[in-house]
Amino acid sequence: GQNIDQPTEMTATEGAIVQINCTYQTSGFNGLFWYQQHAGEAPTFLSYNVLDGLEEKGRFSSFLSRSKGYSYLLLKELQMKDSASYLCAVGDSNYQLIWGAGTKLIIKP
Amino acid sequence: IAGITQAPTSQILAAGRRMTLRCTQDMRHNAMYWYRQDLGLGLRLIHYSNTAGTTGKGEVPDGYSVSRANTDDFPLTLASAVPSQTSVYFCASSDSSQNTGELFFGEGSRLTVL
Protein backbone atom coordinates (compact mmCIF):
# COMPACT_ATOMS: atom_id res chain seq x y z
CA GLY A 1 0.00 0.00 0.00
CA GLN A 2 0.90 3.65 -0.14
CA ASN A 3 2.07 5.32 3.03
CA ILE A 4 3.36 8.69 4.19
CA ASP A 5 4.82 8.93 7.71
CA GLN A 6 5.58 12.09 9.63
CA PRO A 7 5.69 12.86 13.36
CA THR A 8 2.37 13.82 14.89
CA GLU A 9 3.64 16.76 16.91
CA MET A 10 6.86 18.68 17.54
CA THR A 11 7.76 21.54 19.86
CA ALA A 12 10.46 24.14 19.26
CA THR A 13 11.58 27.47 20.65
CA GLU A 14 11.21 30.84 18.97
CA GLY A 15 14.38 31.74 17.08
CA ALA A 16 15.58 28.14 16.87
CA ILE A 17 15.75 25.65 13.98
CA VAL A 18 13.45 22.65 13.55
CA GLN A 19 13.52 19.75 11.08
CA ILE A 20 10.31 17.91 10.22
CA ASN A 21 10.87 14.50 8.63
CA CYS A 22 8.71 12.65 6.14
CA THR A 23 9.16 9.11 4.84
CA TYR A 24 7.10 7.66 2.05
CA GLN A 25 6.26 4.47 0.20
CA THR A 26 4.22 5.07 -2.91
CA SER A 27 3.51 3.44 -6.26
CA GLY A 28 5.63 5.69 -8.42
CA PHE A 29 6.97 9.12 -7.61
CA ASN A 30 6.03 12.42 -9.20
CA GLY A 31 7.30 14.98 -6.76
CA LEU A 32 7.11 15.67 -3.05
CA PHE A 33 5.25 18.64 -1.64
CA TRP A 34 5.17 20.44 1.67
CA TYR A 35 2.14 22.49 2.70
CA GLN A 36 1.51 24.66 5.74
CA GLN A 37 -1.89 24.67 7.43
CA HIS A 38 -2.79 27.04 10.25
CA ALA A 39 -5.57 25.85 12.56
CA GLY A 40 -8.98 26.33 10.96
CA GLU A 41 -7.51 27.44 7.65
CA ALA A 42 -6.75 25.95 4.24
CA PRO A 43 -3.38 24.37 3.40
CA THR A 44 -0.98 26.62 1.51
CA PHE A 45 1.91 25.51 -0.69
CA LEU A 46 5.44 25.74 0.71
CA SER A 47 7.76 23.70 -1.49
CA TYR A 48 8.16 21.11 -4.22
CA ASN A 49 11.03 18.65 -4.74
CA VAL A 50 11.33 16.29 -7.66
CA LEU A 51 15.12 15.83 -7.77
CA ASP A 52 17.41 14.81 -4.92
CA GLY A 53 18.90 17.61 -2.90
CA LEU A 54 18.04 20.74 -1.01
CA GLU A 55 15.67 23.48 -2.16
CA GLU A 56 15.98 26.71 -0.19
CA LYS A 57 13.32 29.38 -0.01
CA GLY A 58 13.96 32.06 2.59
CA ARG A 59 13.71 30.64 6.11
CA PHE A 60 12.33 27.35 4.79
CA SER A 61 14.28 24.58 3.04
CA SER A 62 13.17 21.17 1.81
CA PHE A 63 15.37 18.15 1.18
CA LEU A 64 14.66 15.01 -0.84
CA SER A 65 16.34 11.62 -1.14
CA ARG A 66 14.37 9.46 -3.59
CA SER A 67 16.52 6.36 -2.98
CA LYS A 68 15.68 6.53 0.74
CA GLY A 69 12.05 7.60 0.33
CA TYR A 70 12.80 10.50 2.64
CA SER A 71 12.30 14.23 2.86
CA TYR A 72 12.61 16.89 5.50
CA LEU A 73 11.41 20.44 5.91
CA LEU A 74 13.84 22.73 7.71
CA LEU A 75 12.53 25.89 9.34
CA LYS A 76 15.10 28.44 10.53
CA GLU A 77 14.75 31.47 12.81
CA LEU A 78 11.41 30.23 14.05
CA GLN A 79 8.68 32.78 14.62
CA MET A 80 5.46 32.39 16.59
CA LYS A 81 3.50 32.60 13.33
CA ASP A 82 5.19 29.35 12.22
CA SER A 83 2.96 27.48 14.68
CA ALA A 84 0.92 25.36 12.29
CA SER A 85 0.58 21.88 10.88
CA TYR A 86 2.99 20.90 8.12
CA LEU A 87 1.69 18.42 5.57
CA CYS A 88 3.90 16.17 3.44
CA ALA A 89 2.41 14.88 0.18
CA VAL A 90 3.77 12.71 -2.64
CA GLY A 91 2.58 12.53 -6.24
CA ASP A 92 2.04 8.89 -7.18
CA SER A 93 2.21 7.16 -10.57
CA ASN A 94 -1.21 8.62 -11.49
CA TYR A 95 -0.10 12.13 -10.48
CA GLN A 96 -2.51 12.02 -7.54
CA LEU A 97 -1.26 13.34 -4.21
CA ILE A 98 -0.95 10.97 -1.26
CA TRP A 99 -0.98 12.96 1.99
CA GLY A 100 0.59 12.42 5.38
CA ALA A 101 -1.49 13.15 8.47
CA GLY A 102 0.57 16.27 9.16
CA THR A 103 2.96 17.40 11.88
CA LYS A 104 1.64 19.93 14.37
CA LEU A 105 4.47 22.34 15.22
CA ILE A 106 4.20 24.22 18.49
CA ILE A 107 6.48 27.23 18.95
CA LYS A 108 7.24 28.35 22.48
CA PRO A 109 8.61 31.79 23.39
CA ILE B 1 -8.62 38.13 -6.41
CA ALA B 2 -10.98 35.48 -5.01
CA GLY B 3 -9.14 32.29 -5.96
CA ILE B 4 -11.38 29.45 -4.80
CA THR B 5 -14.66 30.06 -3.03
CA GLN B 6 -16.52 27.38 -1.11
CA ALA B 7 -20.02 27.51 0.32
CA PRO B 8 -21.35 27.00 2.86
CA THR B 9 -18.57 27.61 5.37
CA SER B 10 -20.31 25.48 7.93
CA GLN B 11 -23.45 23.35 7.98
CA ILE B 12 -25.26 21.04 10.37
CA LEU B 13 -27.30 18.44 8.57
CA ALA B 14 -29.72 15.70 9.59
CA ALA B 15 -28.83 12.19 8.48
CA GLY B 16 -30.59 11.18 5.28
CA ARG B 17 -30.73 14.70 3.88
CA ARG B 18 -29.24 15.69 0.56
CA MET B 19 -26.50 18.33 0.58
CA THR B 20 -24.47 20.09 -2.09
CA LEU B 21 -21.19 21.82 -1.31
CA ARG B 22 -20.37 24.50 -3.84
CA CYS B 23 -16.94 25.32 -5.20
CA THR B 24 -16.04 28.04 -7.69
CA GLN B 25 -12.62 29.14 -8.94
CA ASP B 26 -11.64 32.14 -11.02
CA MET B 27 -8.10 31.10 -11.95
CA ARG B 28 -9.12 29.16 -15.09
CA HIS B 29 -7.42 26.06 -13.72
CA ASN B 30 -8.15 22.84 -15.59
CA ALA B 31 -7.97 20.46 -12.65
CA MET B 32 -10.19 20.53 -9.58
CA TYR B 33 -10.40 18.28 -6.52
CA TRP B 34 -12.52 17.54 -3.47
CA TYR B 35 -10.79 16.35 -0.30
CA ARG B 36 -12.01 15.55 3.17
CA GLN B 37 -9.86 16.13 6.22
CA ASP B 38 -10.41 14.20 9.44
CA LEU B 39 -8.45 14.43 12.68
CA GLY B 40 -5.39 12.18 12.65
CA LEU B 41 -5.70 11.37 8.97
CA GLY B 42 -4.18 12.91 5.89
CA LEU B 43 -6.28 14.68 3.30
CA ARG B 44 -8.22 12.06 1.37
CA LEU B 45 -9.28 12.58 -2.22
CA ILE B 46 -13.00 12.08 -2.86
CA HIS B 47 -13.38 12.99 -6.53
CA TYR B 48 -11.40 14.94 -9.07
CA SER B 49 -11.77 16.48 -12.50
CA ASN B 50 -8.86 16.96 -14.89
CA THR B 51 -10.87 19.16 -17.24
CA ALA B 52 -14.41 20.40 -17.78
CA GLY B 53 -16.74 17.57 -18.72
CA THR B 54 -14.69 14.81 -17.06
CA THR B 55 -14.60 13.48 -13.50
CA GLY B 56 -12.86 10.64 -11.70
CA LYS B 57 -13.06 8.78 -8.41
CA GLY B 58 -10.51 9.31 -5.70
CA GLU B 59 -9.67 7.28 -2.62
CA VAL B 60 -13.04 7.65 -0.82
CA PRO B 61 -15.80 8.30 -3.41
CA ASP B 62 -18.67 6.28 -1.92
CA GLY B 63 -21.67 8.39 -0.93
CA TYR B 64 -20.49 11.39 -2.95
CA SER B 65 -21.00 12.60 -6.51
CA VAL B 66 -19.59 15.49 -8.52
CA SER B 67 -20.15 17.25 -11.81
CA ARG B 68 -17.99 19.56 -13.91
CA ALA B 69 -20.24 21.35 -16.37
CA ASN B 70 -17.75 24.19 -16.88
CA THR B 71 -14.19 25.17 -15.92
CA ASP B 72 -15.12 27.27 -12.90
CA ASP B 73 -17.59 25.16 -10.90
CA PHE B 74 -17.17 21.79 -9.21
CA PRO B 75 -20.02 20.99 -6.78
CA LEU B 76 -19.91 18.01 -4.44
CA THR B 77 -23.21 16.30 -3.58
CA LEU B 78 -24.02 13.99 -0.69
CA ALA B 79 -27.16 12.19 -1.84
CA SER B 80 -28.15 10.90 1.61
CA ALA B 81 -25.85 12.13 4.36
CA VAL B 82 -24.59 9.79 7.08
CA PRO B 83 -22.76 10.66 10.35
CA SER B 84 -19.47 9.25 9.02
CA GLN B 85 -19.50 12.07 6.47
CA THR B 86 -18.98 14.58 9.27
CA SER B 87 -15.72 16.22 8.22
CA VAL B 88 -14.05 19.33 6.85
CA TYR B 89 -14.26 19.39 3.08
CA PHE B 90 -11.70 21.23 0.96
CA CYS B 91 -12.02 22.06 -2.70
CA ALA B 92 -8.77 22.64 -4.58
CA SER B 93 -7.59 23.44 -8.07
CA SER B 94 -4.36 23.26 -10.02
CA ASP B 95 -3.01 24.43 -13.33
CA SER B 96 -2.27 21.02 -14.80
CA SER B 97 0.07 22.56 -17.34
CA GLN B 98 2.53 23.39 -14.53
CA ASN B 99 4.93 20.62 -13.58
CA THR B 100 4.89 21.57 -9.90
CA GLY B 101 1.24 20.62 -9.61
CA GLU B 102 0.74 23.15 -6.80
CA LEU B 103 -2.77 22.98 -5.35
CA PHE B 104 -4.76 26.05 -4.38
CA PHE B 105 -7.33 25.35 -1.68
CA GLY B 106 -10.61 26.92 -0.73
CA GLU B 107 -11.22 27.85 2.91
CA GLY B 108 -13.11 24.65 3.62
CA SER B 109 -16.66 23.63 4.47
CA ARG B 110 -17.23 22.13 7.92
CA LEU B 111 -20.08 19.63 7.73
CA THR B 112 -21.70 17.96 10.72
CA VAL B 113 -24.17 15.14 10.10
CA LEU B 114 -26.37 14.25 13.05
What's this model, at a glance?
The complex is a heterodimer of chains A (109) and B (114). With 109 residues, chain A is an all-beta fold.
What would your notes on this structure say?
- The complex is a heterodimer of chains A (109) and B (114).
- Chain A is mainly β and 109 residues long.
- Helix content of chain A is 0%, strand content 57%.
- Chain A has no helices and 11 strands.
- In chain A, the strands form 2 sheets. In chain A, strands 2, 4, 5, 9, 10 and 11 form a 6-stranded mixed β-sheet that branches.
- The radius of gyration of chain A is 13 Å and the shape is globular.
- The mean pLDDT of chain A is 95.
- With 114 residues, chain B is mainly β.
- Chain B has no helices and 11 strands.
- Chain B has strands spanning 4-7, 10-13, 19-25, 31-37, 44-49, 56-57, 64-66, 76-78, 87-94, 104-105, 109-113.
- In chain B, a hairpin with a 6-residue loop joins strand 5 (44-49) and strand 6 (56-57).
- Chain B is globular.
- The mean pLDDT of chain B is 94.
- Chains A and B meet through strand 5, strand 9 and strand 10 of A and strand 5 and strand 10 of B.
Average of the residue pLDDT scores of chain A: 95
Quaternary structure type: heterodimer
Q: Could you give the count of β-strands of chain B? A: 11
- Euclidean distance between termini CA atoms of chain A: 40 Å
Q: Quick check: average pLDDT of chain B?
A: 94
Largest interface: A-B, 23 and 19 residues
Separation of the first and last Cα atoms of chain B: 36 Å
Number of strands of chain A: 11
Question: Which stretches of chain B of 5+ consecutive residues score pLDDT under 50?
Answer: none
The secondary structure category of chain B is mainly beta
The description of the largest β-sheet of chain A is: 6 strands, mixed
Give the H and E element order of chain B: EEEEEEEEEEE
Share of residues in strands of chain B:
35-45%
Instruction: Report the helical percentage of chain A.
Output: under 10%
Question: What fraction, in percent, of the residue positions of chain B are helical?
Answer: under 10%
Q: What percentage of the residues of chain A does DSSP assign to strands (E)?
A: over 45%
Order of helices and strands of chain A: EEEEEEEEEEE
Largest sheet of chain B: 7 strands, mixed
Global Rg of chain B:
13 Å
